Amino acid sequence: MKVYGLIGYPLSHSFSKGFFAEKFAREGIKGCMYDSFPIPEIGELPALLTQYPDLQGLNVTIPYKQTVMSYLDELSPAAAQIGAVNCIHFKDGRKIGYNTDAIGFRRSLEPLLQSHHNKALVLGTGGAAKAVQYVLESLNIPYKLVSRQATADSISYEQLDASMIASHTLIVNTTPLGMYPNVNASPALPYEQLTDKHLLYDLIYNPAVTAFLQQGADRGATIKNGHEMLILQAEASWEIWNNE
Q: 2 near 30, Cβ under 8 Å?
C-alpha cells in the first residue's frame, strides 16, 4: 500500500483527503491511500515518518510550510526561491521539498490575464504570498506588497490611493480575511475605485465568493477564488510523487 498524506495543525477542514479519495475512486487507482496527519509540533515529523515507512509523499499546510524545510534533504529551485514547501516527495531515501502552490496559482491565473493586467497588489506577506510573488516575477508582472503596517518591503492599506488602485489592476488576496466563518471581513481597500478593468483573485475558496470578491464583482471586475488553484496544486503534487 502506497501511503500519501497531509501534515499541518489543526486539520479539521482538509480539502486534500477528500480530493484524493475521490481521485483514487474516479480514476481506479489501486493500492494507494491518502490520510490526514495532524501534528501539533513540526518536531513530531521524524516520528511520523518512522511510523509510516511506506510514505511516498506528503502535502504540507499551515503552519509548517516554512518550518518543515529544515527537515528536508533537498529543495526544488522554486521551493528554495519561494522559501516555502507544501509538497514532499520521498525518493531513494531522500526527502525533497517542492512548492505546488506556485504551480496551481500560475495555471489558474494565466487564462484570466489580459494585457492591461500589468501591475499587481499582493495583500498579505505570509507564506502563501511568497508563492504568489514568485509567479508574478516569472510572469514579469511588477507588484507591491500590502500589509497592515508599512515596512521596508510593503506599503500599508492606508497608502492605497485612487491612482495606485487605477494602475494596479490585478489584486491578489493571500490573507485569511473573509474566510469562513468570518465571511463579512475583507481587506481594507478603497473598493469604490475598482472598475471592470480589475482582476481580483482570492486564495480563499470557502466561501466561494468572499466579501473581497463580491465588492469587485459589484463594480464589474473579473473575480476568481482559490478552489481551482487548490485542485491544480494537488494534481501537481500527484505528478511529482509519480513522475519525478
A: no
Task: Indicate whether 235 belongs to any domain.
Answer: no
Category of 222 on φ-ψ map: left (φ > 0), alpha (ψ -120 to 50) or beta: beta
- Please identify which of the residues 65, 95, 130, 224 carries the catalytic annotation: 65
Reply yes or no on whether 65 is catalytic: yes
Distance, in Å, from the CA atom of 12 to the CA atom of 217, rounded to the nearest integer, reads: 30
The pLDDT value given to residue 128: 86
DSSP class of residue 219 equals: T
Are the beta carbons of 63 and 69 closer than 8 angstroms? no
User: Which residue range is the domain that position 199 belongs to?
Assistant: 103-228
Q: What is the pLDDT of residue 12?
A: 78
**pLDDT averaged per 10 residues in sequence order, the chain, 244 residues:** 96 88 97 97 98 96 94 97 96 96 97 98 91 97 97 96 97 96 97 98 96 98 97 98 85
d(CA 5, CA 219): 41
Q: Per this entry, what is the length of the chain?
A: 244
Same domain? For 155 and 221 the reply is: yes
Closest by CA to 153, choosing from 172, 171, 130, is 130
- Cell numbers 527537515 correspond to 71
